[in-house]
């Protein structure tokens, strides 16, 4: 238990520090790198809680796709972040008011929070009915049995969105030059190159 507690405080401490560095770092690339570090430490906390599937999804989806995409976008776009920060001080009072309201809501929620009488029994048997199934196996059993229709519908919606994006990308528009791979492979040197013999002293 001591090792688990030390690991939790280690992951939680690095997570809090990296979250603060995300919003305080002046370099946007460093902010994205601290965001990736925070995702990894959050995944470590989920592993300590026994939710290895959520930890795997957090690393694969958020670190492997979202955060890396943010990093490449920030590095490729020539954005003047100094100009974006200009005039930001005028929004500080509004941000303090909104933050105070959210803090009051959180305090109110946790002050009047009450646990169910069956919470101890449910915590002792978080996967009742699945026997010795692991976290990922139990989640798969629930997802592909009780929620198979919403799962298939979400996949169909994503598939339709992908087809729509491809159709919009390849639609015919005037004034747009598109790459034709077949024409490039069929091109010969004589089609694009002309050799002229220029006599000395005549110029081009």
Largest sheet: none
Report the principal-axis shape.
extended
CATH arch. level architecture of the domain at 1-81: Up-down Bundle
Alpha-carbon distance between the termini? Answer: 85 Å
* Topology pattern, helix = H, strand = E: HHHHHHHHHH
The CATH topology of the domain at 1-81 is Four Helix Bundle (Hemerythrin (Met), subunit A)
> How does the helix and strand content classify structurally?
mainly alpha
Work out the number of β strands: 0
Q: Mean pLDDT score, rounded? A: 81
* Count of helix runs: 10
Radius of gyration: 28 Å
Relative strand content: under 5%
Helix content: 55-70%
Which spans of ≥5 residues are poorly predicted at pLDDT below 50?
none
Task: Indicate the CATH class of the domain at 1-81.
Answer: Mainly Alpha
Name the CATH superfamily classification of the domain at 1-81.
NADH-ubiquinone/plastoquinone oxidoreductase chain 6, subunit NuoJ
Features:
mainly alpha, Four Helix Bundle (Hemerythrin (Met), subunit A), 10 helices, about 70% helix, extended
List the helices and strands and how they pair.
Blueprint: H1 2-24, H2 28-48, H3 52-76, H4 81-85, H5 92-111, H6 119-124, H7 135-143, H8 148-169, H9 181-186, H10 189-192
Short synopsis of the structure:
With 204 residues, this protein is mainly α. It has ten helices and no strands. The chain is extended.
Description:
The chain has 204 residues and is mainly alpha-helical. Among the domains are: 1-81, Four Helix Bundle (Hemerythrin (Met), subunit A) (Up-down Bundle); 134-169. 69% of the residues lie in helices and 0% in strands. It has 10 helices and no strands. It has helices at 2-24, 28-48, 52-76, 81-85, 92-111, 119-124, 135-143, 148-169, 181-186, 189-192. Helix 1 runs antiparallel to helix 2 (28-48) and helix 2 (28-48) runs antiparallel to helix 3. The radius of gyration is 28 Å and the shape is extended. The model has no long low-confidence stretch (mean pLDDT 81).
